Inverse folding.
């Protein structure tokens, strides 16, 4: 048996930097507060909590003088404003690629375009992008795009972790509805790279495993892309969930992981597969 591990599986640089900043800030100040989970991964959240990085519901819940960390996928304009008005100690972990989307969407609005954001309703990153402009339309699926009325002039950006296929399908529909349409392709490069690699690997391998929490939209999208190409694709959150029967008779096992999966969990999954297959080393793919 061969195990092929996608080279860049797991944390993207934006999430890695934000998690490190949370640990560093907690160490420096005793604790640090965040409006929601820094990554969609229960293990990481529990470890951070033990280190002093706590999740709160609102700015009111942050004890006086304690730092508030704004997470990698961005923060709504009114929340930033409120924190600044209260003179809170803001630690900014916003990913530079998310900030780029904020800039691009504002430029499209300045051009006089109606803003359309391709993304998941209610997702924090989408809420942050939407807050940069006035009354944007959020479109999650081709069906939602189909339901839109005709628009004279529109500008489109997407959530950084969307699949290229979903954005393409939605754009195809918008071409029939919008006279003057401009798309800025804001799917981030770590997302594009992970999606390309998983599509290639799922076709080549007998079994494809995606490691990631079921609360992570990004991990679920990777699993869906793998399943479309290889029916023997499974999503697991940790090594214990791997069933040895899945690997029976498999000659090649591909492994990837969502952007919120820490290295420690990936390592344990690889160790388990190597133990089942009785092989010494994994092969790095990509
Ligand atoms: S998924 Fe992309 S945009 Fe989001 S934090 Fe990671 S690198 Fe940044």
């Amino acid at each position: 048996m061969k195990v092929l591990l996608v080279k860049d599986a797991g944390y993207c640089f934006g999430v890695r930097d934000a998690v490190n900043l949370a640990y560093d800030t907690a160490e420096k100040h005793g604790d640090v507060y965040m409006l929601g989970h820094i990554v969609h991964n229960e293990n990481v959240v529990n470890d951070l909590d033990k280190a002093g990085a706590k999740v709160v519901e609102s700015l009111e819940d942050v004890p006086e003088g304690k730092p508030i960390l704004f997470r990698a996928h961005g923060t709504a304009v009114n929340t930033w404003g409120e924190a600044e008005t209260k003179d809170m100690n803001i630690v900014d972990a916003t990913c530079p690629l998310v900030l780029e989307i904020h800039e691009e969407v504002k430029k499209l609005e300045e051009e006089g375009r109606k803003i359309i954001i391709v993304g998941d309703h209610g997702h924090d990153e989408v809420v942050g992008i939407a807050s940069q402009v006035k009354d944007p339309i959020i479109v999650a699926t081709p069906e939602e795009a189909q339901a839109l009325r005709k628009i004279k002039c529109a500008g489109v950006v997407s959530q950084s972790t969307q699949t290229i296929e979903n954005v393409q399908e939605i754009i195809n529909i918008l071409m029939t509805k919008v006279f003057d349409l401009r798309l800025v392709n804001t799917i981030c490069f770590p997302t594009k790279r992970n999606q390309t690699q998983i599509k290639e690997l799922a076709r080549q391998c007998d079994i494809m495993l995606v490691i990631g929490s079921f609360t992570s939209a990004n991990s679920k999208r990777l699993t869906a892309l793998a399943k479309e190409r290889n029916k023997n694709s499974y999503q697991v959150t940790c090594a214990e969930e791997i069933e040895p029967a899945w690997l029976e008779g498999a000659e090649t096992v591909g492994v990837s992981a969502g952007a919120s999966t820490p290295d420690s969990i990936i390592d344990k999954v690889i160790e388990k597969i190597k133990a089942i297959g009785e092989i010494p080393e994994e092969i790095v793919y990509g």
Residues 97-187 form a domain with the Cobalt-precorrin-4 Transmethylase; domain 1 fold (CATH 3.40.1010.20). The chain has three domains: 2-10+190-285, 13-94, 97-187. The mean pLDDT is 95.
